[in-house]
């Protein structure tokens, strides 16, 4: 997981992630921090194996740990986090050291998945679909103490295990 660890230790990732932690410190609803990011990664990797999709583990984990990195901007200025996240992720991926770099096609797949993780397109790419499904499946609304106050629709809430 050398390449994923390079992302997690990247100075821009640390800054953006730190800002997100600050902004969500008092949040009672779903948070977008490491527990969520790794839940998404693990669910996605399991689905990848179960469905024999053949996606590289580090590519799945990279997309998962980066997919909400722009969430702080959504809180601060209303920029949809998939847009700010794609921009931040691109900068991080383009500046990794050579021994931890992703191939151009891998970067393209990761950025497409980040951009598409909130709304599933009809023609979604495999990693994009996987990130979307895993992100939604990671939410445990049925066990959330703030579920009754949440403004998610009943259709979006996970009130039972599905995957």
How are the elements arranged and paired?
Blueprint: H1 2-8, H2 11-23, H3 34-50, H4 57-66, H5 71-77, H6 81-94, H7 104-115, H8 126-137
What does this 3D model show about the protein?
The protein is mostly helical. The protein has a single domain (2-149), classed as Hypothetical protein af1432. It has eight helices and no strands. It has helices at 2-8, 11-23, 34-50, 57-66, 71-77, 81-94, 104-115, 126-137. It is globular, with a radius of gyration of 15 Å. The two termini are 25 Å apart.
Low-pLDDT segments, ≥5 res: none
What kind of assembly state do the chains in view correspond to?
single chain
The fold-level CATH name is: Hypothetical protein af1432
Q: How does CATH name the architecture?
A: Orthogonal Bundle
Q: How many DSSP helices?
A: 8
How confident is the prediction overall: mean pLDDT?
94
Q: Give the % helix.
A: 55-70%
Q: Gyration radius, to the nearest Å?
A: 15 Å
Overall domain count: 1
Q: Approximately what portion of the residues adopt beta-strand conformation?
A: under 5%
**What is the chain-wise order of helices and strands?**
HHHHHHHH
CATH class: Mainly Alpha
Shape: globular
Distance between the termini: 25 Å
CATH homology superfamily: Hypothetical protein af1432
Main β-sheet description: none
Number of strands: 0
Coarse structural class = mainly alpha
């Amino acid at each position: 997981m050398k390449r994923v660890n390079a992302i997690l230790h990247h100075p821009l990732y640390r800054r953006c992630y730190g800002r997100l932690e600050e902004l969500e410190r008092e949040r009672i609803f779903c948070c977008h921090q490491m527990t969520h990011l790794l839940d998404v990664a693990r669910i996605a990797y399991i689905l990848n194996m179960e469905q024999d999709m053949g996606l590289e583990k580090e590519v799945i984990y990279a997309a998962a740990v980066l997919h909400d990195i722009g969430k702080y901007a959504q809180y601060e200025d209303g920029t949809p986090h998939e847009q700010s996240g794609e921009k931040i992720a691109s900068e991080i991926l383009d500046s990794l050291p050579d021994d931890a770099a992703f191939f151009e096609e891998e970067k393209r797949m990761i950025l497409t998945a980040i951009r598409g993780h909130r709304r599933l397109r009809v023609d979604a790419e495999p990693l994009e679909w996987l990130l979307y499904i895993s992100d939604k499946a990671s939410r445990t609304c049925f066990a959330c103490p703030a579920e009754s106050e949440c403004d998610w629709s009943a259709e979006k809430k996970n009130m039972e295990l599905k995957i």
